[in-house]
Design goal:
Layout (H helix, E strand, L loop, with lengths): L4 H19 L3 H24 L9 H18 L4 H23 L5 H19 L10 E2 L12 H24 L2 H11 L1 H6 L4 H20 L2 H5 L1 E2 L1 H4 L2 H14 L5 H20 L4 H16 L3 H14 L1
Antiparallel strand pairs: 1-2
Helix pairs in contact: 1-6, 2-6, 2-9, 2-12, 2-13, 3-4, 3-5, 3-9, 4-9, 7-9, 12-13, 12-14, 12-15, 13-14, 13-15
């Protein structure tokens, strides 16, 4: 059986991550890589609904936070291991995405965006008043005393996040090139024409919101074990939602590779600025980059490259 170059690259990246844990001792690099990989998953998740389908979602931070608090609640009540917590968060957030999508996908444009933002506020209010997971005071997570064969705990969570990011990239790629992806592209281009052509628009949009919610939950599930303290203000931070929107738009929303490129570019730049200048400049950086790309290159980096490639072929 012929193995595609994509899977060779995926395996090579994962092996490279394992090698990195053996040759690099500075834990900061793994912390920074974790943050970038987490942002990559969120950018991919947002793009499945916002880029592939054309429904701009401002409530992405809610799914991330629900994934994090699902981990906290199940860890406190059942003491489940991290892989099961991630799976549970994916299921819970996927079902929430399905339910929210069923209620809001009849709205379009700015009305849908406002509805998703309102949904995020509702979930934040519920979490803030849920005493079992700490409420407004937040919750602490104790890190495990053993971390497999890795030298440190941060190396272990880095590898976990690397596996999740590679899985998210594979899902996005398969969805983009599948029949579902073509249907989502038809909805994005002209939903009325897609319905007239027989595309099951509501069903495909519900699939899109479900996958988006599940991946957002996957990104949020390991978060409490990374920071060890979570409160509603940090989990529902607007900056999380802004990053999830900006990264795919900078990288390019029409192609599965766009969110990956945008997340790697913006995330790496943010980490460099945080270390060398100030973390307060990150929001300004994202805002400037977003305005420049929307104005000068609305198709993103991937769109610019494809446009250049077509001209070169002609």
């Amino acid at each position: 059986m012929k193995i595609s170059a994509f899977w060779v690259v995926v395996v090579a990246i994962f092996v490279g991550g394992l090698v990195l844990t053996e040759v690099v001792d500075n834990e900061y690099y793994f912390t920074a890589l974790y943050v970038i990989l987490q942002a990559t998953i969120m950018a991919i998740a947002w793009n499945i609904l916002g880029g592939f389908t054309g429904y701009v979602n401002f409530g992405s931070a809610a799914f991330f936070a629900v994934g994090a608090y699902t981990s906290i609640a199940l860890n406190k009540s059942l003491g489940l291991p991290l892989p099961l917590l991630i799976a549970a968060a994916a299921i819970v957030c996927g079902l929430i995405g399905l339910g929210v999508g069923y209620l809001t996908l009849r709205l379009k444009g700015v009305y849908f965006a406002i509805a998703t933002l309102a949904m995020a506020i509702v979930f934040e209010t519920l979490i803030t008043n849920w005493a079992y997971v700490g409420g407004a005071r937040g919750a602490y997570i104790l890190t495990p005393e053993t971390f497999l064969w890795f030298k440190s705990y941060i190396q272990m969570v880095f590898i976990v996040m690397l596996m999740l990011a590679l899985t998210a990239v594979a899902i996005s790629r398969m969805l983009n090139s599948s029949r579902i992806g073509r249907g989502l592209a038809a909805i994005r281009d002209d939903e009325v024409a897609a319905e007239c052509a027989g595309v099951p628009t509501l069903r495909l949009k519900l699939i899109s919101t479900t996958v988006m919610g599940a991946l957002m939950g996957v990104a949020g599930a390991p978060y409490p074990f990374f920071v060890t303290f979570v409160d509603p203000v940090s989990a529902f931070n607007l900056f999380i939602a802004v990053n999830a929107i900006a990264m795919p738009m900078i990288g390019g929303t029409a192609h599965w590779l766009g969110p990956v490129i945008g997340a790697l570019l913006v995330g790496t730049t943010q980490e460099i600025i945080t270390v060398n200048v100030s973390s307060e400049l990150n929001i300004l950086l994202v805002g400037i980059m977003l305005v420049l790309f929307i104005t000068l290159a609305p198709q993103g980096i991937v769109g610019l490259w494809l446009k250049y490639w077509r001209r070169r072929k002609k």
